């Protein structure tokens, strides 16, 4: 279990201020965490690894630790093709 997991007891963690110091926009933060959580879940499924925490929790922890920011992620949203 990570050091961050040990700090979670009894309070909301990580604080939004900590997360926003790495990704300043809340909406971008949500997108970055969602994208990374999907990557974590897919990697775990492909390798057969059992996750100790939920993928979203792991992604948020990576942001809080400064391991993840939006600078190297492709956050392009593709428009769906017309279904006419």
Walk me through this protein's architecture.
The chain has helices at 3-7, 16-22, 26-47, 55-64. With 84 residues, the chain is an all-alpha fold. The chain has one domain.
Secondary structure layout:
Layout: H1 3-7, H2 16-22, H3 26-47, H4 55-64
Helix pairs in contact: 3-4
**Per DSSP, what share of the residues sits in E-state strands of 2 or more residues?**
under 5%
Q: SSE string, helix = H, strand = E? A: HHHH
Total number of domains: 1
Structural class per helix/strand content? mainly alpha
Q: Main β-sheet, in a few words?
A: none
Q: How many β-strands, per DSSP?
A: 0
Summarize this structure briefly:
The protein is mainly α. The chain contains four helices and no strands.
Quick tags:
84 residues
């Amino acid at each position: 279990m990570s050091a961050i997991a040990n700090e979670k007891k009894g309070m909301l963690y990580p604080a939004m201020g900590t997360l926003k110091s790495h990704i300043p926009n809340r909406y971008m933060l949500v997108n970055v965490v969602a994208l990374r959580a999907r990557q974590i879940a897919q990697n775990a499924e492909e390798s057969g690894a059992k996750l100790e925490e939920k993928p979203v929790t792991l992604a948020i922890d990576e942001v809080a630790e400064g391991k993840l920011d939006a600078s190297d992620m492709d956050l392009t949203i593709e428009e769906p093709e017309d279904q006419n």
